[in-house]
Every structure is written in structure tokens, then in C-alpha cells.
Amino acid sequence: MSALKRALLWLFMLILSFGLLWWATQLYWWLASAEPVAARGDDETRSKVHWLSPTKPLVYAFNPNRTQGIRVLSNAIFNGAVTITTPVNYAIEYALLDDKQQVLSRHVYHHASKLVDNTVAEQVKQLIENREALSVASGQSFFIDHAHLKTASALSLRLIPEEPLMRGVVVRLHAKVPTAEGDLERAWLKLPQARRDRLLAYHSLGANGVSEQELAQVVASTWLKLAPQGVPNIDFSADTLYEHLPYNVMTYDFGALQLDLDGFYSSAGLNASIRLREATTLKMKSTSPHSDLTLTWYDFAELQPPQNVPLTASNDGFYVTPKLKPGLLLIQSDAVRVSRWFLSDGTPVQAKHSYLYALTPERSAHFSVVSGADVALELRVPPNALIDSTAAISQAPLSVDIALYQDGQLIERSTIELNRTMSTTDRHIADDTNRYQVGEANRIYLQVPKSVNRIELSSNASVWAKLQARLGHGHYRQYRCEQNCQPEQYREIGAWFSQAADNDYDFIAANALFAVRLFEAAPEPQPTTTTYQSVPLDSAKRTVTALLPAPWKYFEAPPAATPYRFSRVTTPFDMNHPDMNHPELKLIASYNSPPYVQQWSGVQQPEQLSANLKNAKRVFINNQAAAPWLEQRLYFVARGDTLTLRYDKVPQSIVLKLFATRSNHTLLLQTALKGVRRDGIWSDYTIRNKDFFLAPWQSEGEQAFLLHPKTPTLYAYDSVTLPIGTDLSTLQQLELTVDSDVWIGISNEYYDAQRQVDWRQNELR
Asked: Highest taxon of the source (predicted)?
């Protein structure tokens, strides 16, 4: 009997061993069938998803009293070996159900996403099911607002496949619910570190600079994952992916046509542009033929007329422009075109954005302000209120009320009527990625009275508004350079700083905070209607005359012949020149070895003059029409000295032209305007304290030079214009300091001054 038991035991052990071996083999082959994935980072986790069916919908229940919105996130699934480079299209039908599972409304939402590449730079998403590794397309999402959920208690989802190669679609749902009032601190600590750092980065004081109100707004809501009905064993305790969505989710969802969000959009009514601060080459990529785009380069100084810019195909798939000088590149097209632009080193060209609050008669914006600070308001007509300029007269006035308060008590109220003109460059990007024209910016300025600590903006119709602030004595710093620039070595300081409204969260919750993408418009030719008067600096220690390049704007008539206008003549000099007998004849010659300058006035002996001009490098003669050189007086300012100019009349602007005798030296110019301000609201604004880092010109043209026999060489810098706004009723003085020895010329611009063209010092090069 014992032998029989031993035999049965051995038989049982043998069967168990074979069973374990078979199970281990199956497990090995199941694991081996999965494709390897890229290394996972510390910020990655897994998420439970559910297949969508074209026939049997998934139903999710929710509490309509607590649910502020629902986000549906989905991914298209493909077989592991498939390779697809074009966008994947599919649609999700969702229906809102009441408590009796009756359909209240039915909608269809379309998606397009791309298959995630298996590259080192991008974490591969995989779905492993039945020992098979499936490829996952990039995630897509859409949001169902609370306004649509008030009468519903459940949501059903059904797949509408549009791609024959697609294996299916998986989804997960999250409900936005309010955070319990006593749970705010714990909700803050549960936020991802990157999101907390993003908020704290706005404050130089770090966590101590964030108010309790700001923290409460950030964690006022949280996202909870929803489970589908009828699916057993759902456990979301360890599923944290998408539990906390990014602070600003950029979605690629669309209804009919998807446009690149980062691309530069142009159409018959909208132009894009790129400001070129230094000479550079640009590269472009576009899904449409490059011949559909019209590129025009504009010179900010208006010395050269607008020029068409050709594009040349390169070997790396880009279209390349020739080297462009500083100016503005305007991008135009007759039909909708989207192009991507890059610098020569491949850095993408980024557009500027402005975020504005949508005011309505029922919703106003409240801002806490500092007494004595300066405020700038940007007001725009939104897309749905834009009108044609010819119909503007028939429209009711569109206005914004500006109310000033001190601790809740109204101090002053003003009303501003808006201009409805449509912008040809600025646009709003809607959720469907389409671009819509917005109104041109209406800008007004005011100084906050000392008794005011709050500003309220309200309107009689839909208006987009933005408030910026600065201290009146604050410094504005700019770096100017033409080529071979090194901006990272010079810290610039902006003029204005945007302010968040006290009720910012109310606008965000109401989806009433909009972004406007900004592009510069092409400069329109503006004939000169002002005159420039040179400022004599009697206090200057040294003064000298210089010969400076002084071209004119391309749309202006060339200057007439005058004694102080010079033209360069060919060398050797022709002694039979027709102006040799002019009574006011003046010749200027410059030499190389050694560098020096020599002048002759009046009629000279031909033989002696010919011998003197024989070795001259350049020769200039006066009294020439359309002469591009101008004789001007410059004054010496020593390093660190403060030059003070006093005024009894307010000019339109002050123009500073600086020259140095050292090459490749960047100057720091500091200017300070002092005057008396007007009361009330201003249409433009004067920044009183400005600093400029000025790099010397490196143009291909000829440099200026002093009319000095021994030290003629001059290195020119970009002209600096200090505009004087209507906010100043009286200008008392200008103080300027330079960190190096310079020669300087100063001109005042007036509308009603007598023209003194002999010492005109325009901002023209």
C-alpha cells in the first residue's frame, strides 16, 4: 500500500512540475512578445483606459450638483507594426442622459492625432493586451462645460471609426469638482511639483509672494477619474495620470480643419510679420507651395523702399531667404496659408501674445493698484463685434468705463469710446485652431491718484481689456545691435508689466480670458511734417565739425544743393569739375597713411590743389544736389559726465546721435527726462528714464569722420529718439550720461519751428 502511495505522489509531483513548466513557458513568450519601450522617467505613470465600442456605448454617471465639467481624453490604437505619418481621424459620439437613462442631447466630436514615434526623445506609449503590443496615437481631449450638465446625470460614449487601419480607441474620463474648503492645503501639496513651480516662478519672493487668494484659486477645483458603469473591479487608487491636468492645457481638438497652432497664419485679411533686430537669414517650412506666400522686407528707417524677398529650396527640406538687414518681414497670402519660420540656427521664431479679459455689461474686471503708479490700458473689440469701417457710423458707440476706488468708495469715473477699426495683423486663436481678426488696440494711460487703490473696468458691450502698470520713475532698458549681436550679455528691462485682475479666477472659470497673437504692421510712408533744430551745447568742453552720412527717405524729394551738403567725387579729382569756380566752394579730402583730413575753401590754384589731392582716398565737394553727406557740429561728452539740457518749450521728440573714436565698443547711454504732467487720461505716454546698450554700426556703407587734421575716424551708433507724449505739459530738462567718451549731436523735433536744415540731425542714417 505504501508503494502505491509513493507512486501516486511521484505522479502528482510530475504533473505539477509539467504544469509549472508550461505556465512559465507561456509567461516567458507572453513577455517576450511585448516590444521594448523607452526608459521611463520619474514623472511617468500608468493609466487605466477602456475600449470604446461602435455599437455598445460606455456610460459614466456623475453628480450634476458637484460636477463643474467633464474632460474626455482618448487615444487611437493601432497594431504594433503599423507606421502612419499622417494624422489619424476618428470621432466620438457623446450623449447626455437623465436619471432615467433617457437621451437629453447627442453630439459628435471629431479628433485628429499622430502616431507616437519610437524615438529616444519621446516616451513611447504602448497598450499590451492578449500578449500583443499595440501602438498608441497621441492623446486628444474635449471638454463638456457645466452649462450642458445641469439637467444630466450620466454620459454615454460611442466610437465612430474613420480610419480602416485603426484597431480601436481607448478613453478615460475626469470630472472637475470643487475642493473642500478645509482641504485646500492638502490639495496644494498634491499638485505636481512642475505646476507649483510654474505658479511660484511669477513671484520673485517665491512661496512667500503667493497670496492665500491665489493659492485658493489654483486648488479651488480638482479632477476625479470616473468609472464606466457595468465594468467590474475598477480601482483608481493608484491611477494618477491626468488626475491633475496642466495649468494651461493646449488642445489640438477641432471640428472640421486643424491648423498648426505654432504656425504663422496668413490670409486675404490677415498678415503675419517677423521683426528682424539684426541681420540674419530665415528658414521656412509650409505644407502649401511656397509660391503662395508673398514676402516683403521693410526698412524701419525708410531709407530703402519695400523689397520682395525670394525663397530658395535647401537640401534639408526648408526654404531659405537671402540675408536680410534689420527691418520687418511681412508675410502675405491671398488664401489661408500656415508657415513655420526658423532662424538660421534652427531656432523657431516665436510670436508675441497678449492676454485680455472679456468684459460684458454683466462682468467687469477689478484690479488692485499702487497709489502713484502709472497704468496702461489695452482695449480691443472682440471678433464677433468687429465691423467694417464703412459701417462704423451706423453702430452704437462702444465704450469702457474706468472707475477709481479707495477702499470701496468711488473717487472718479471716466468713459472711453473705442475705435472699431479691424486689425490686419493681430488675431485670436479659437479652440478650433482657426484665426479670427480682432480690433486694433485702443491704448490709454493714466496715473493712479494717491487716494486710489483699486480700478474697475466695465463696458456697455463685449470688450477685451488688459491692464499693465509701472512706476513712473522706473527704468526701461534696451539693447540695440545690427549684426554679430550678443543679447545674452546685456539685460533688458521691459517698460510695462501685466496685472492679473482680482477676479481673475471668475474670468477663467467663465472661459472669458482670451489670447491675442500679435504681429507688427508694415510701416506706412509718412512724409515729414516736422522740422529738427540742432541744440547748441555751450557747456561742452570741446566741439568739432564732422562729415556724416545723411540720406533721405526713399519717398521724399532729394535735398537741394547747399553749402553744407557734400557729394563724394571720383579720384583722382577732376580739376575741370563744373563747380570749381563756385564762390562758396569747399573741398574735403581724407587720407589713409597716416589718417588725416584736409579742407580747402574758396577758389584754389589748380596746380597746388591737384598736387594735394593726388594721394587722397576720398574727396568731397559741396553745393551738390541730392548730396548724401552733411556737415554737422558735434560736441564732446566725457565718460561719466552728466550733460543737462534745459527746455522752455516741449518738443515732439529729442534725437541723439552718438559717435565714438573706439571701434567695437558697446556704449551704455542713460537718459532722464524731468517735467510736469497733465491731469486726467492721456493718449500716449512718456517713459522718462531710459537706458540703451548701443552696439556700433557694422554696415557696408562708409563711416562718418571728423573734420580734424589728426583724429578723423568716427564710429557711428544707432540714433536714439526720445518721444515726448501728451502726458507732459512742461518739459524742464534732459539729463544724459554715457559710460565712454563720445561725440554727440542733439536735435529737437517741432511741428511749428523754423526749418534749420543746415544743422538738421534727423534719425536717418
From this structure: Bacteria
Cell of 166: 485603426
Coil, strand or helix: which one is 636? strand
Other Cβ atoms closer than 10 A to 101:
12
Residues 6+ apart with CB under 8 A from 289: none
| CB contact burial 642-656 (16+ within 10 A = b; e otherwise) | ebebebeebbbbbbb
Question: Which DSSP state fits 98?
Answer: -
Query: How many alpha carbons lie under 13 Å from residue 331 in its C-beta half-sphere?
Result: 26
- Other C-beta atoms within 10 Å of 189: how many? 9
Residue from 519, 523, 524, 525 nearest 267 by CA: 519
Beta carbons of 170 and 283 less than 8 angstroms apart: no
449 prior amide bond cis, ω within 30: no
Closest CA to 615 of 556, 573, 674: 573
Inform me whether the pLDDT recorded for 727 exceeds 60: yes
Residue of 444, 441, 442, 440 whose CA lies nearest to 375? 444
> Percent of the chain scored above 70 by pLDDT?
78
Residues in the chain: 765
Name the phi and psi angles at 684, rounded to 5.
-145, 175
Task: Work out the number of other CB atoms within 10 angstroms of the CB of residue 536.
Answer: 12
β-strands 689-694, 475-480 pairing: parallel
Cα distances (angstroms) measured from residue 211 to each of 221, 231, 497, 502, 720: 17, 44, 19, 11, 41
Exposed (0-12), middle (13-18) or buried (19+): which is 564, by Cβ within 10 Å? buried
- For residue 603, pLDDT beyond 70: no
Q: Which three cell numbers stand for residue 347?
A: 531656432
* Widest pairwise Cα distance in the chain: 147
pTM score above 0.70 = no
**Mean model confidence pLDDT for the chain:** 79
Taking the C-alpha atoms of residue 615 and residue 619, their distance in angstroms, rounded to an integer, is 10
- Bridge partners of residue 457, in order along the sequence: 365, 402
Has residue 98 got a pLDDT over 50? yes
What's the per-residue H, E or C state across 374-432?
Answer: EEEEEEECCHHHCCCHHHHHHCCCCEEEEEEEECCEEEEEEEEECCCCEEEEEEEECCC
Return all residues near 3 (Cβ < 8 A) that are at least 6 apart. none
